[in-house]
Amino acid sequence: MKTYDLLNMGRSSIDLYANDVGAPFIQISSFAAYVGGSPTNISVGARRLGLKTALLTAVGQDPVGDFILNFLNNEGVETTFIPRKPQHRSSAVVLGIEPPDKFPLVYYRDNCADINLTIDDALAAPLTDCRVFQFAGTNLSKEPSRSATLFAAETAKQAGAKIVLDVDFRPDQWFDVRAFGVAVRSALRLVDVVIGTADEINAAVLTDPSRMKLSHSQVSDTRVEGDTASAIRVMLDYRLEAVVEKVGAQGARVHLPDGAVIHAPGFPVKIYNILGAGDAFGAGFLYGYVNGWGWHKSARLGNACGAIVVTKHGCANFMPTMDEVTAFAAGYGGLE
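The chain above was modelled as a monomer; its predicted structure follows.
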């Protein structure tokens, strides 16, 4: 029996969300402070649903680190394994909100603590005492986090954990977009389930950078052209259990090695802020995955969590509980 249902590894941050919804970035007058970072968001979301979660990230010896740890402790996420790194800073992200389709964000990750996670930090975490180990593609963007993440995934897998990769493609965190694909493909031999959007899946097998279209003034606006079906087949050839493709308002498609595709429809809601919806999906999907719900119901739970969060101002702070998800989904015929 494992102590933790889910161990998440990767970035954490203070997220500053614009209060001036709809205003151009240059006209923002104030921000609300939340906690963010993809694996951190997923850990919080899964904890609110009922999983026992632990987080392997790192924060600086600074007030931002205090802010992040205080929130996580209040949420019941296990923080014992989060090192503080006095020579590095806790990360920050600044985000604008211009619905329905413009959500500019800027990362402040120079000298950040979480990308300096080491193999020794991983060894101190419960890699052999979790049922699922989940990590983000951004972990692989720099050393020592890259080696620490691969080591952690390898160790957890050897101990019988399932390994889940959230592709988490953030192009401004890579010196060469082709390096992202190389790094992700190097990790796929250890992975059981991949979660990502079509753009992220295509980026993971990208070899021709001319297929990538990025607006540098709005980092969140990234398009990677390609044959998504072919990219998924490339991934599945690594002997994955599934590739879970997030398709926005349409929900999610779960691609299996035998060619089957399971479509889990989404929940129609009015979008307020899309930032963090994918992490909410990850939290819900992983709850179902850990509990053996099956692909369709797990993805439906993920869709419901994502639909709730897109109606909110932030992400981790607004993750739903199981009671909230159940009540929400009942209005759409439930999760089945």
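The first helix runs from residue 38 to 49.
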